[in-house]
Design brief:
single chain, alpha/beta, globular
Length: 87
């Protein structure tokens, strides 16, 4: 769901109440955190709704130092040419 120009909020109650954000930077996307799905379906759906493609995702920022969100990112990153950043 777009919550501001160039900013999308992706929420999910599966497993636990989790949230991610997608920032549209024109020619690239940045994903902030991940969701509970191991197949990244929520993130992929939001990217499609923003009329973008998975290859537009160039960066993933992790704000929680938990193993499970980090592992979930690896289901997304092989489809992009981006990088992963831990904050």
């Amino acid at each position: 769901m777009q919550i501001a120009p160039a900013l999308h909020s992706i929420g999910q109650k599966k497993g636990e109440n989790v949230h991610a954000h997608l920032r549209d930077e024109g020619e690239s996307l940045t994903l902030i955190d991940t969701l509970f799905d191991t197949d990244a379906s929520g993130v992929l759906a939001e990217i499609a709704q923003a009329e973008k493609h998975i290859t537009d995702l160039k960066q993933i920022v992790v704000t929680r130092a938990r193993l499970v969100p980090v592992l979930r990112m690896f289901s997304v990153m092989p489809r992009t040419n981006g990088g992963i950043f831990d904050v």
